[in-house]
């Protein structure tokens, strides 16, 4: 018979498993915005009691990925396109400060990590693996932020990149997941500027990189806003 400490560990492990699985499905758009998340059905799916399911949903709610409605039903959070201008502003700022900071500090060991994620990104682009592209892109920029050396920036940038994953997934789907080679080349140019310690060049590249992402997402929204995806304009 398990003691209380063992029960807490088992429940915690179950919560983490459910959280990780649902988070990936939400961010990859396997679970679309507005999809219902019924505790009973999730309990049956994961073969767990409702307690770890409920705790996982609370964590996802804290991440802004699920929403509890007035009737107490839980759904995958809608995408608030109305907030995108302020999101883009924050994203652009973080591209700049982290890339500039990385060029100022430079660190050969961390650059190995940056290059590894760049290799993963290039391979994902070549393989048209959208989820792998988004994951590798996130890890690439987070590694650059870590090189810049400010943990507050790193945490905030990681959160922004996570919030943008579903938008990127929608965008990639509009051209059959054929990401332009331009993205890979821009990453290479960033790496070169950081390794050269060229702060101004790194800043210029970060501005351009952010601008083209913002522009393309804005074009997607203008073109495909009538698609049957749950969004919020309030």
From TrEMBL:
InterPro entries: GntR_C, TF_FadR/GntR_C, Tscrpt_reg_HTH_GntR, WH-like_DNA-bd_sf, WH_DNA-bd_sf
Record-annotated HTH gntR-type domain positions: 12-79
Gene3D superfamilies: GntR ligand-binding domain-like, Winged helix-like DNA-binding domain superfamily/Winged helix DNA-binding domain
PROSITE patterns the record matches: HTH_GNTR
Molecular-function GO terms, alphabetical: DNA binding; DNA-binding transcription factor activity
Pfam families to which the protein is assigned, alphabetical: FCD, GntR
Keywords, in A-Z order: DNA-binding, Plasmid, Transcription, Transcription regulation
Protein name stated in the entry: GntR family transcriptional regulator
Phylogenetic placement of the source organism: Bacteria, Pseudomonadati, Pseudomonadota, Alphaproteobacteria, Hyphomicrobiales
């Amino acid at each position: 018979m398990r003691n209380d400490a063992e029960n807490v560990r088992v429940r915690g492990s179950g919560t983490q498993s459910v959280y990780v699985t649902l988070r990936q499905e939400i961010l990859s758009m396997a679970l679309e915005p507005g999809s219902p998340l019924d505790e009973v059905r999730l309990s049956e799916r994961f073969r767990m009691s409702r307690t770890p399911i409920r705790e996982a949903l609370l964590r996802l709610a804290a991440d802004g990925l699920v929403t509890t409605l007035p009737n107490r039903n839980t759904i995958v959070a809608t995408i608030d396109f109305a907030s995108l201008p302020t999101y883009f502003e924050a994203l652009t700022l973080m591209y700049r400060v982290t890339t500039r900071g990385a060029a100022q500090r430079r660190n050969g060991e961390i650059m190995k990590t940056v290059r590894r994620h760049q290799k993963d990104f290039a391979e994902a682009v070549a393989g048209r693996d959208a989820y792998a592209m988004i994951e590798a892109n996130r890890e690439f920029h987070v590694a650059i932020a870590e090189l810049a050396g400010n943990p507050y920036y790193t945490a905030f940038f990681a959160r922004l990149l996570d919030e943008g994953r579903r938008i990127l997934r929608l965008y990639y789907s509009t051209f059959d997941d054929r990401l332009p080679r331009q993205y890979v080349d821009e990453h290479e140019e960033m790496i070169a500027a950081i390794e050269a310690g060229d702060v101004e060049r790194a800043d210029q590249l970060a501005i351009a990189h952010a601008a083209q992402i913002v522009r393309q997402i804005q074009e997607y929204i203008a073109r495909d806003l009538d698609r049957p995806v749950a969004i919020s304009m309030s």
